[in-house]
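Q: Sequence in, structure out?
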Amino acid sequence: MAARYGQDLLPGTSPSDLPAFLVEGRRPSLRELLPFVVRRSWLRLRWGRRIELGSGVLVGPRVRLELERGARLALGSGVWLGGRTRVRARGVVRFGHGTLVGPGCAVVASREVAVGEGCSLGDEVMLSDTRVSYEDAERPTRLQPAIAVPVRVHDRARIGHRACLLAGAEVGEGSAVGARVVVEGRVPAGAVFSGVPAPRQTEARRRSP
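A: Exactly. Output:
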């Protein structure tokens, strides 16, 4: 566990509210674990088949879920879902094995938002697969149909604090997206993106010591 949570992440991509026992790589005491057991049991009771919880999933306080009929939220084993995270879904939301989600993140899925294994999302990251249509210039935007395009974050990607991944965004395997970056298209595997919207890229391996 120490290796998984103690890795040297790009600054700004590690959740700020990880429990001490995860950071330190030790077994939690019963007192530390009890709130998470209670939250896990409540989520299963409240959402039934709409939610899938892998082994060792930990959910922080004040997480808010809005899962419509037919929606599905899948949390892989070892996922940390930070406090105050909000998930609103009509479609499918997936977080893969060992992924860390910072506090205050927001997920909107009309179709699909999929985050791979071993990813790290910083605080207050937004992922939304839905955007407004502007096809009819004479019609108010609130009356135009929304367009949903899946958002995908591949394995071991890192997303900085308050970054926004909008409809159609795809972050490649091992890529890093900087804090407050807006992503609308594709981030290649192994790239580091910065700027608003993200205009620059370098290969992550060239940035490594």
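The chain has one domain: 2-207.
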